[in-house]
Design goal:
CATH superfamily: Glutaredoxin
Order of helices and strands: EHEHEHEEH
CATH topology: Glutaredoxin
Helix content: 10-25%
Number of strands: 5
Largest sheet: 5 strands, mixed
Amino acid sequence: MSELFVRGLNTLVIYNFMFPRALDDEGPCPSCTSMLDALDGAAQHITQRINFAVVAKAPVPRLLAHAHQRGWRGLRLLSSAGTTYNRDYFGEDIEGAQRPMLNVFRREGEVIRHFWGSELFDAPTEPGQEPRHIDSIDPQWNLFDFTPEGRGTDWYPELSYS
C-alpha cells in the first residue's frame, strides 16, 4: 500500500468500485460508475491534496476497458483480484458480493494506519431510502437533495441512456 502514497501527501482515500456489480452480474455498478464519472473530472484537483485510488475486484483488462469506454483519464485504477483487500476493508461481504466502501488511510513516517471507513452502509435507512454513507461525494444525489422532488424512488443511474 505504501506505493500508493505520493511524496508529501500522507492521506490516501480508496474507493471500492462494485465491479463486478453482484455475484450474478459481472458488469460494473451503474451507480458507482456515475459517481466515478464525476470524480474522474475532479481527480486532478483532488490529488493536489490527497492520494486517491479506485479499487475493483475485476481483472485489470476489464477495469481498463470500462475506464476507456467511460473516457476516464484522471482516476488511479487498481484491481484487488487475488487479494483480500476488499474483504479486509468491508468492500466485500462474506458471500463475496462487492460493496461500495470508502476507506481513508494515514501515513505517519513508515507506519500506515486505517483512519476512517464509510460504515454507514450498514446503518438503518429511512423508509424508501438507500443507505447514506458515501453519497456526500456524489454530486448528482446532492443536487437532487436541493430540489422539491428530492432523490425520489423511481430513478437510478444507468450505464447509458437512450
